[in-house]
Amino acid sequence: MSQPLLAALLRHLYLVGVAVSLAVLVAVPLGIACSGRPRLAAGLLYVNGLIMTIPSVALYGIMMPILALVGRGIGMVPAMIALFLYSQLPMLRNTIVGLRNVDPAIVDAAQGMGMNRLRILFTVRLPLAFPLIMAGIRSSAVMGVGVAAIAAYIGAGGLGTYIMLGIANSNRELILTGAVTTTLVALALDLSLGSVQRILERRVGMSK
Amino acid sequence: MTNTVSRETHIVLENIWKRFDNGSVAVRNLSLDVFRGETLVLIGPSGCGKTTTLRLVNRLVEPSEGRILFDGENTMDMNPDKLRQRMGYVIQGIGLFPHMTVEDNVSVVPKLKGLDGRTVKETAARCLDLVGLPVQAWGKRWPRELSGGQRQRVGVARALAGDPEVILMDEPFGALDPLTREVLQDELLALKERLGKTILFVTHDIHEAMKMGDRVAIMRGGELVQAAEPLALLSCPADNFVADFVGSDNHLAMFSFVKVKDVPLRTENLPVVTAEATFAEARSVVEKSGVRYGRKRFVYILDAEGRVMGYADLESGRNPSDPVRIALKAAPSVARESSVHDALLRMVENGVINLLVVDENRRMKGLLTFGDLNGLIESQRKGDGCISKP
């Protein structure tokens, strides 16, 4: 692999990695906080659904003038903000649904045994909701790889640069290099997160 | 009633009302004493408030009016989590944690109680042993690998592990097939004898109620209709609802509730000798006891520890100085905990009208005769011993 392609790939991973990690830190606690408050949950999911419908190019366009006020109109910062926002919905929704779907009989048993709310959350509900939460993180990450490719248009760099340059110069090889590498990154990320999930689940007996 | 039951109250429900937010009233002015060491079964048609009553005791539901005393202390003044740790809780479908091994499931309450790691391990092993699932073989299994009956056993072990003073059971065997249910009921009865815990048990199965309960509390529409010992419910039902519910008029059905130990057994002057006795000695014992089967005379033979070895027929022209053991045959017997129905069945199967009653070590506890059973039906029919009707 050529030096510039490797650099673009690492930048791409950095962009997705930082944005999705920050999104996990916000979406999962938010999901936990509103899992017992159906109205708040519905409202948050609605707002997040709206954000998801904005095309990424448009979102970059909206953010450019706003962030330009603090001198960050282009580059990594708007790209990360957009990725962060897009990542919220799958994780938030899966956290809420995962916690809500835990068998009430199990929660009842835990409460009847004398566990307090916090302990039930951490030792019973979260472990049982983990597969769904993890599935949300995986779809966010895969989607993030795609969204990040478009961020090249606002100067965030990454694998999207090859696609952008390829289109501008009618260079099919450049387009293919960027597109295929992006796809491979997305696949590899999904597979590796999948194996992390299986290892964690096996440790708690959720899969064979 | 077993000797582990005292008249000392353990849980007292005083004029309890429970109204839910949607306006429905689940429990109406219910007062009930639960005695230390007894098994009290709550039963009634669905929606009668029996499960709510159970959940009121460990505060999963809180009363709208009235108070509940546990060991003399108002439960509303106690920390609910601490209160629940003092009460084992077993529900239908068990609620085992699917992401924890069998051993970890059983260790939950000991850990909550802050016991150290070694004590937790020992406790879990002891409780799994009690339910017949030794930790070496079963501890590392996952709940999904177990059968329904085994899961329920783990549920019971988990409830016992906190060394609770009370065990609350909400239709614990409801989802099991009849055969497994029967086995687990018997195991729980045996455990109860050994551990002497107070048990509050909810069921909708009257057979289960009569079998498991030292007392049975019948509820209807949120009210307590009658709480009494199974036999008393049969002979002295408070009203037609109770009579229909327990089936007072169905003597054969009644026999499946009544336990052998509830029947007045003949315990003295039994035709019993040791294996060393001769035919001549045996004959004089039998004459004295007056127990015979038609015109046949027979004697039960016990070993040195008082365990039943079998019986010998005395009518076969034996040499009077021979020991009776040369004519030893296996004797049909029945356990004290068995139902009268089982005893009757065994009599029919073996073509006898007298049945030995033995304990778990096959020690002789008395003799059940067909005449005793007849007397039982008679006394039920007449309603003997109905002192008061609540």
Q: Descriptors for this entry?
A:
heterodimer; A: 208 residues; MetI-like fold; B: 390 residues; alpha/beta; Rossmann fold; 2 domains; six-stranded mixed sheet; 14 helices; 17 strands
* Total beta-strand segments of chain B: 17
Could you name the CATH homologous superfamily of chain A?
MetI-like
Mean pLDDT across residues of chain A: 88
Please bin the fraction of helical residues of chain A.
over 70%
**Main sheet record of chain B:** 6 strands, mixed
Structure write-up:
- The complex is a heterodimer of chains A (208) and B (390).
- Chain A is an all-alpha fold and 208 residues long.
- Chain A has a single domain (3-203), classed as MetI-like (MetI-like fold), CATH 1.10.3720.10.
- Chain A is 82% helix and 0% strand.
- In chain A, helix 4 packs antiparallel against helix 6 (117-150).
- By secondary structure, chain B is α/β, with parallel strands linked by helices.
- Chain B is built from 14 helices and 17 strands.
- In chain B, helix 3 packs parallel to helix 6 and helix 4 crosses helix 6.
- The radius of gyration of chain B is 24 Å and the shape is globular.
- Chains A and B meet through helix 5 and helix 6 of A and helix 2 and helix 3 of B.
Question: What is this entry, summarized?
Answer:
The complex is a heterodimer of chains A (208) and B (390). With 208 residues, chain A is mainly α.
Topology:
The complex is a heterodimer of chains A (208) and B (390).
Chain A: H1 3-34, H2 38-53, H3 56-68, H4 76-100, H5 104-112, H6 117-150, H7 160-168, H8 172-203
Helix pairs in contact in A: 1-4, 1-6, 2-4, 4-6, 5-6, 6-8, 7-8
Chain B: E1 9-19, E2 25-35, E3 39-43, H1 50-57, E4 65-70, E5 73-74, H2 80-85, E6 87-91, H3 102-112, H4 117-130, H5 135-138, H6 148-161, E7 166-170, H7 178-195, E8 198-203, H8 206-212, E9 215-220, E10 223-228, H9 230-235, H10 240-246, H11 251-257, E11 272-274, H12 279-289, E12 298-302, E13 308-313, E14 328-329, E15 333-335, H13 340-350, E16 354-358, E17 364-369, H14 370-382
Parallel strand pairs in B: 3-8, 3-9, 6-7, 7-8, 11-12, 15-16
Antiparallel strand pairs in B: 1-2, 1-4, 4-5, 9-10, 12-13, 13-14, 16-17
